[in-house]
């Protein structure tokens, strides 16, 4: 494991203000996107109908087992997608019936990838969560696209007996594949950090990492590194589910991993661990700032592709479902 700090250690470039500023600006850019509640409802519908079908999930897991020799990527993707769908459904139940109903509806949602306290958010935040979730399979998406196309042709369309009526464009696996094609841009799953090995962590690194945890807003930008591995020259790897508060670290090819989940400000984070994380995040500041900006741009392009790909469905939803529910304040919910 990386060496922990000592009082004799010297600081060597923890998270710079301009680096944190890039993350904050990317967060603002995503929040400023014009995304309607109907788009998020449609994403939840497509994800639930296509992603939870009897064909899609086992087929994609088998695909990863055959192509990559592992199933963890696909299994995590579906677990996180299911969490998003359940959270949106819970908010819808709470809006339409009673606040207590949402508690029942979301009771089985895991708290690992979605902060339960942050479920009430603007539609643009939810869009970023969907983009971040789908990044998990972006590395192999070019191989996956023809596989999904074949799967869509072979899979029968089975209507949901519990649904009321049908929505135009419903096509099960085909709709799900079309959604993924709109949300995903091929990106490498690994982010290699240039330069030599990180120097000995210091107490200043610990202080500045705690400041980073405290200052970076919760919301869309937390998903920017979802599904990506940050790899350093000395063999250390960092993975974040919600940057910078939830993730794990491994080192020297060891099968062991150090998992961490931090509260605001990292108040209960041991100094040694805070310093180590601060040193590594600080060393990667320029590269991670670029990733933040790239993620914001991907969210904007995904929004545009979704609007184009599902324009008919979204207009129909607005006419048949959205109008009775439009109220002041609804723009803050998916």
Model description:
By secondary structure, this protein is α+β, with helices and mostly antiparallel strands. Helices cover 52% and strands 6% of the residues. It has twelve helices and five strands. A five-stranded mixed sheet has the order 1-2-3-4-5, with no helix packed on it. The longest helix is centred in the first third of the chain and has 25 residues, at 72-96. The chain is globular. Mean pLDDT is 81; it is low at 3-17, 104-108, 160-169 and 322-334.
Which descriptors would you attach to this protein?
52% helix; alpha+beta; single chain; 6% strand; 334 residues
**Helical/strand content category:** alpha+beta
Cα(first) to Cα(last) distance is 42 Å
How do the strands of the widest beta sheet line up side by side? 1-2-3-4-5
Per the principal axes of the C-alpha atoms, what is the gross shape? Answer: globular
Q: Average pLDDT across residues?
A: 81
Low confidence ranges: 3-17, 104-108, 160-169, 322-334
Total DSSP E strands: 5
Please state the CA-atom Rg, rounded to the nearest Å.
21 Å
Q: How would a textbook summarize the main sheet?
A: 5 strands, mixed
Order of helices and strands: HHHHHHHHEHEEEEHHH
Estimated helix fraction: 40-55%
Which band does the percent of strand residues land in?
A: 5-15%
Number of helix segments? 12
């Amino acid at each position: 494991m990386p060496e922990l700090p000592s009082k004799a250690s010297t600081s060597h470039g923890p998270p710079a203000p301009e680096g944190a500023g890039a993350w904050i600006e990317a967060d603002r850019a995503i929040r400023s996107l014009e995304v309607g509640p109907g788009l998020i409802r449609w994403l939840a519908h497509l994800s639930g109908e296509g992603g939870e079908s009897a064909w899609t999930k086992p087929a994609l897991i088998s695909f990863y087992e055959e192509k990559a020799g592992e199933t963890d990527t696909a299994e995590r993707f579906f677990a996180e997608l299911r969490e998003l769908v359940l959270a949106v459904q819970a908010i819808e139940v709470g809006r339409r019936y009673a606040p207590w109903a949402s508690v029942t509806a979301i009771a089985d949602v895991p708290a690992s990838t979605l902060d339960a306290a942050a479920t009430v958010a603007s539609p643009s935040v939810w869009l970023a969560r969907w983009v971040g979730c789908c990044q998990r399979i972006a590395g192999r998406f070019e191989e996956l696209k023809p596989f999904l196309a074949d799967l869509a042709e072979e899979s029968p369309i089975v209507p949901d007996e519990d649904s009321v009526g049908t929505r135009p464009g419903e096509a099960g696996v085909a709709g799900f594949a079309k959604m993924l094609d709109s949300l995903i841009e091929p990106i490498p799953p690994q982010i290699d950090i240039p330069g030599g090995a990180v120097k000995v962590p210091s107490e200043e690194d610990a202080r500045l990492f705690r400041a980073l945890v405290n200052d970076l807003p919760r919301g869309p930008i937390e998903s920017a590194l979802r599904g990506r591995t940050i790899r350093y020259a000395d063999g250390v790897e960092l993975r974040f589910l919600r940057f910078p508060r939830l993730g794990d670290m491994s080192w020297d090819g060891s099968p062991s991993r150090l998992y961490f989940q931090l509260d605001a400000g990292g108040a209960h984070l041991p100094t040694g661990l805070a310093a180590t994380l601060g040193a590594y995040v600080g060393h990667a500041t320029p590269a991670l700032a670029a990733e933040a900006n790239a993620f914001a741009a991907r969210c904007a392009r995904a929004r545009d592709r979704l609007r184009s790909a599902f324009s008919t469905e979204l207009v129909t939803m607005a006419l048949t479902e959205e109008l009775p529910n439009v109220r002041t304040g609804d723009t803050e919910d998916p």
